[in-house]
Amino acid sequence: MNRLKGRQPLLVGIGMGVLALLVLVMLVLPKKSEVGTQQKALDAAVQSGQQLTAKVGELEDAKRQASSVKKQLEKLELAIPDVTALPRLIRQVQHVADVSAVDFVQVSPGAPVAATSGSYSTVPTQINATGSYFAVTEFLYELETLPRAVKVTSITVGPGPTGLPQLALNLSAEVYTTDTSAGPGSSPGPTSTTTTTGGA
């Protein structure tokens, strides 16, 4: 009997330990797992919030730059229009000739040629002008600053029809359009060659 009484506190202690273990398993561990799940959800929400904040920043930056981008697109549209716009090109070159005071100018656009990449067409163009050295020099400068993109592929300068000091300028150039249907074999087909002559 005394031996049983001596073991009683030990059995009570073991029982309390088992009870504590059961409480830990049944109450604490599920809560710990739930806290871990909630922490993961919180971390995901924070990360998503950071991504959204970054996206909002990008959109605000794009909004601030929209005006500048629009101006750049408008400038590009003038430089490389979506149609061949040959009459406009001829008027622009004629205006350059007037400003430069050359004696004579001739613009002869050729048939557009579709690029192999299919993203644009090239219009080969011959430009002839005659005038004094200063007039021809100014003509070249004004042509270089034309709103329409003009790429000079070759240039020849020699005495003019009346001899020196008049000069004759012969340019082979290219202008461009994003109209990929402007080239040979396309629909509606190549633009017909247009030639104009006149005095400045």
CATH architecture of the largest domain: 2-Layer Sandwich
* Tally of separate helices: 3
Beta-strand percentage? 15-25%
**Helix content, binned percent:** 40-55%
State the name of the first-level CATH class of the largest domain.
Answer: Alpha Beta
Span between termini: 134 Å
Largest sheet: 6 strands, antiparallel
Mean pLDDT: 77
Task: Kindly identify the CATH topology of the largest domain.
Answer: Alpha-Beta Plaits
Question: How would you concisely characterize the structure shown here?
Answer:
This protein has about 200 residues and is α+β, with helices and mostly antiparallel strands.
Structure description:
The chain is α+β, with helices and mostly antiparallel strands and 200 residues long. It has 2 domains: 1-79; 86-198, Ribosomal protein S6/Translation elongation factor EF1B (Alpha-Beta Plaits, 2-Layer Sandwich), CATH 3.30.70. It is built from 3 helices and 6 strands; from the N terminus they run ααβββαβββ. It has helices at residues 2-79, 86-100, 133-144, and strands at residues 104-109, 113-114, 121-131, 150-159, 167-177, 196-198. Strands 1, 2, 3, 4, 5 and 6 form a 6-stranded antiparallel sheet that branches. Helix 2 (86-100) runs antiparallel to helix 3. The longest helix is centred in the first third of the chain and has 78 residues, at 2-79. The radius of gyration is 41 Å and the shape is rod-shaped.
